[in-house]
């Protein structure tokens, strides 16, 4: 997948080198969505280990679906893309993430544009993601970028499905 410009570059996640960054980003995404990373880490603390195993498998299956966004040698964002587990013909965004200091600068559009290219190249005509309605910044971003709120998830009542048709 192409980079956006010289200062920004998408690179496949190197889990051996950057596993701590991945865990940090995912935990912060839980804080943004649910006010705490407790759900991520789980009561027994095994959540991070389980996440890294899951991410390793996802990277093996679709390396261009799990990428970091770099700016001048620093990782500033992360995307995790694949197919929706309930319908393999639908793409799924597991994570759009930007480090806090890079939010609100229009860089989220780069993540969404990458996802659009990815889903197009992999033959998906639409994609879904889940978001907490309390994460107002994320909801506003998704709606601005053409994601439509499909309503509350049955299996996770504190989140909503969003869908985008390409």
UniProtKB/TrEMBL annotation:
It holds the Pfam family Acetyltransf_1. InterPro entries: Acyl_CoA_acyltransferase, Bact_Acetyltransf, GNAT_dom. Residues 8-166 form the N-acetyltransferase domain. Keywords: Acyltransferase, Transferase. The keyword Nucleus does not apply. The keyword Acyltransferase applies. GO terms for molecular function: acyltransferase activity, transferring groups other than amino-acyl groups. This is GNAT family N-acetyltransferase.
């Amino acid at each position: 997948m192409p980079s956006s410009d010289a200062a920004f570059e998408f690179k496949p996640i190197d889990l051996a080198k950057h596993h701590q960054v991945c865990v940090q980003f995912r935990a912060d995404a839980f804080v943004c969505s649910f006010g705490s990373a407790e759900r991520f880490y789980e009561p027994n603390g095994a959540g991070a280990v389980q996440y890294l195993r899951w991410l390793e498998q996802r990277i093996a299956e679709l390396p261009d679906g799990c990428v970091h966004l770099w700016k001048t040698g620093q990782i500033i964002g992360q995307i995790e893309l694949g197919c929706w587990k309930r319908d393999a013909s639908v793409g799924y965004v597991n994570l759009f993430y930007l480090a806090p200091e890079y939010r609100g600068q229009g860089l989220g559009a780069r993540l969404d544009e990458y996802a659009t290219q990815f889903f197009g190249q992999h033959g998906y005509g639409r994609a879904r993601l889940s978001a907490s309605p309390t994460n107002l910044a994320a909801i506003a971003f998704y709606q601005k970028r053409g994601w439509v709120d499909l309503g509350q998830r049955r299996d996770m009542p504190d989140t909503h499905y969003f869908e985008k048709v390409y």
